[in-house]
Amino acid sequence: MKIIKKLISVFSAISIITVALISCDDANNTTEGYIEGLYTVWGKTVMPELEDTFYVTENVGTFGLKSGDRGVMRVKYFVDNVLGPKKAVWEIDEVRGLVETYPMTSAAQLDSAEYSSPFVGITPFATYGSAWAWNKLQNLYAVYYTDGSDARFAMTPTGFAKDTLSLMLYADINDGETMQAQLLTFDLASALPLLDSKQQQDAMQPDTIVTKMSMLFYDAEVDSVIVSTIIGGRCANPFR
Fold first, then answer.
1. Who is most buried in 81, 148, 167, 194, counting CB within 10 A?
2. Across 28-148, where does the E strand assignment appear?
3. Contacts from 108-112 at CB under 8 Å and sequence distance 24+?
4. pTM for this model (two decimals)
5. Percent of the chain residues topping a pLDDT of 90
6. Strands 101-102 and 131-134: what pairing?
7. Are 212 and 234 in contact (CB under 8 A)?
């Protein structure tokens, strides 16, 4: 049985590509290839990130995956060109690592003295960008300096107005000389009970919402820590 390495939440920048291996002889007119990217498991299917589709696979159990697991995977496809792409056969070829989803945290439960480490930037995660909101998840590929020990992260909702959910990202990082990038994912739906009653009512109204994230950022030019704010993305309302 193939075994996935223990939970991997830190990835180096990856390049997601599609490789097609084509055979077009008379005896075997087929197309094979791989698509690597972020996928979410649902039953016997895998759903590619930011796409409105899914692939039925028969070997999810081989990797010990369960519904809700999300990670960087390589998926193989096989197409008989006579039958066409609707009859394609899909299977998971490799699981590079799983991505942990963090729940939102109440500001009252967070020790801001501990969670006071700054980030040094954000960077694109493969083809997905530096930050995106999708499928009720907020994602950010954050960069920081560390001594190599495990870091802790938390995100708190700070308000909702019009169609925009405001969030604050915190980190507890042991400072060091190693620059590291980590894909951070937070459950947007878990923010609703942490808003006040008026904001909860407002948050459930729009069809889509915009997220806005703030975080502590070390600005090397002025040698100072400031609060930096970015747009996290737009997604279907996770509170409905």
1. 167
2. 29-42, 45-48, 55-56, 70-80, 89-98, 101-102, 121-122, 131-134, 137-146
3. 110/154, 110/156, 110/170, 112/170
4. 0.86
5. 80
6. unpaired
7. no
| Rounded Cα gap, residues 66 and 45, in angstroms | 10
Q: What is the pLDDT of residue 32?
A: 87
Phi, psi of 38, deg, nearest 5: -90, 130
Q: Which residues contact 44 (CB under 8 A, 6 or more apart)?
A: 56, 57, 58, 60
- The whole-angstrom separation of Cα 166 and Cα 183 is 19
DSSP sequence for the chain: ---PPS-----------EEEEEEE-SS-EEEEEEEEEEEEEETTEEEETT-S--EEBS-TGGGT--TT-EEEEEEEEEEETTT-GGG-EEEEEEEEEE--EEPP--GGG--TTTS-PPB-EE---TTS-SEEEETTEEEEEEEEEE-SSPPEEEEEEEEEETTEEEEEEEEE----SEEEEEEEEEEGGGGGGGS-HHHHHHHTSSSEEEEEEEEEEEETTTTEEEEEEEEEEEEE-TT-
Residue carrying structure tokens 């609707």? 86
Question: Would you give the DSSP letter of residue 5?
Answer: P
Tokens standing for residue 26: 């008379």
Both tokens of 149, joined, read 């020990």
According to the model, what pLDDT value does residue 28 have?
64
